[in-house]
Prior knowledge:
Helix content: over 70%
Number of strands: 0
Distance between the termini: 12 Å
Order of helices and strands: HHHH
Amino acid sequence: MNKLTKAKLLAFTGIIIAAAVAYIYHLLPYKAIWLWAPVLVFVDYWLDWYARKRGMILSDEMTVQTTGKSAWATFQATIALLFLAIVYYDMHRASVDPRYILAYIAGFMGIVFFAVNTYYNIRQGAWD
């Protein structure tokens, strides 16, 4: 296991433990679980950026293309989710809080980007 993988494992474990403690002691509402996915994505991006800056990862054209494809897929999926959220809000206006819809969309974007980026990295053999 290389240094970057160890750092990511440590960071993600810390984030998951913080999330679990926040929910056990009711520091956050249960609907805020969607906000942890973007946190994980941003931490992953920052760790990759830091590793690239320190020379641990060589940035190449394929990495940039993978990130671009992942961002485009996330953008398209988010547009579809926004449409569905607007329709849902229009139908259930009295019982839906718009703040939660924004939290769901942020979480959805994080999950989709992480899943698509992981898929493209596996297809290109980045983790072999």
